[in-house]
Give the backbone structure.
Amino acid sequence: MADIDKAFTGSIPKLYDTLMVPMIFASYAAGMAERVAGFSPRAVLETAAGSGAVTRVLAPRLGTGARYVATDLNQPMLDYAAGRQGAGSSVEWRQADAQHLPFDDDTFDVVCCQFGAMFFPDRIGAYAEARRVLRSGGRFVFSVWDSVQENDFAAVVADAVAAVFPQDPPLFIARTPHGYYDIARIRDDLRRAGYEDVQIETREEVSRAASALEAATAYCQGTPLRNEIESRDPGRLQLATEGAARALADRYGTGAISGKIQAHVIIATK
């Protein structure tokens, strides 16, 4: 995976949170929060917290006195998330690499991570780190996107942007967010990290956007796909966005649009 895939900087955090989160992340964040809160944890660690989609939903659902630490490798995303949460929040915000967690062994009841594992260069190492900081019987709860073919908007945008750069198509969407979907591989990685009890559920949801242009802007300008486009030709970002919008409108209509999204939700117990 290219370093450019992990660069959530500039205007990306705000666009990501205001456009991408309600379109594809919010429904899964609600499910994640319900699962984690259902374990009645005394201490929760969230890795790859991003702009705080899960954090904002989960924090109010935890019991009084529960400790909640939200981390991310990317400081601009963490700063944005902390700002959204507000000054009165009891969430502890900390910059941290999920592959090298700065916490003692047996510290947390739950480690959760929504749509972050795809970005880990060393997933087995990150899974082992989550297991290390979990108490005995603790759960590692995380989610990853299914293949790009199972996610309607992502597939259309990926093809449309590739058409703008036919000699060197940006591959971020298929390579990274939708590049780690094989269930057998996920199970094997978790086994190699030390987990024996692994449950995987494939969940289909509906992605909604106010317009095709909004959805195209979310993908092309609110994710690291923007970095890939601009690395080829900064002047073609708007052209790529408009091309993706036309492709989405052709497929889903010119008003509010909706399409299938699908992801795997994994619970691994220490």
Remarks:
- Strands lie at 43-46, 67-72, 92-95, 108-114, 134-145, 197-209, 257-269.
- The CA atoms of residues 210 and 256 lie 4 Å apart.
